[in-house]
Design goal:
Immunoglobulin-like, about 30% strand, four-stranded antiparallel β-sheet, about 170 residues, three-stranded antiparallel β-sheet, alpha+beta
Length: about 170
């Protein structure tokens, strides 16, 4: 081995020894991270179509709608009607001949509310649907509303439509 190679080998060995020696005196310490978060509750409400079909001349016609609230687990909710009257209309509904009233009653409630209570804003103390969220739409929260369309006697012939706005408070 030449002197030059010997010097290089000694230098490499010294460097390795120096690095390995420093590691034998290493120490450790620990720390922590504080973590936090807030789960925020949300709710939605859906309803099946209240389809009256062919409206009767001379008698009323009933139809039902199933209300399905879906809320985050543990969230208390109440569903109410945002209006006092519900009216099917045709031709813009400007005259009474183009309007058919259909009062809605609470037929069955998942919890809360009074059976057969008028489902109106003015009667929200009895005509409401309430419950506690399960984390998804569930059969325990299902409620049925029944609409009764008045007689179509002396009403304009045509297709009648309406939108009932539900309010879910949580």
């Amino acid at each position: 081995m030449t002197i030059k190679n010997l010097k290089s080998s000694l230098l490499i060995c010294s460097a390795l020894l120096l690095f390995s020696t420093n590691n034998t005196f290493a120490a450790t310490a620990s720390g922590s991270i504080a973590a936090s978060g807030t789960a925020v509750g949300t709710c939605t409400v859906t309803a099946s179509t209240m389809a009256f079909g062919t409206l009767n001349f001379g008698s009323t016609k009933t139809a039902t709608s199933t209300i399905t609230p879906s809320c985050t687990l543990g969230v208390n909710y109440t569903v109410t009607n945002a209006a006092n009257t519900n009216t099917l209309i045709t031709n813009g509904g400007a005259v009474s001949a183009d309007q058919i009233l259909f009062p809605i009653t609470l037929t069955s409630s998942g919890s809360g509310g009074s059976a057969n209570a008028a489902f109106t804003l003015a009667n929200a103390a009895a005509g409401y649907i309430s419950g506690v969220g399960t984390g998804s739409a569930s059969s325990s929260g299902l409620s049925t509303l029944t609409g009764t369309a008045e007689s179509a006697s002396s009403k304009t012939i045509g297709d009648y439509t309406a939108t009932v706005t539900l309010t879910i408070t949580y």
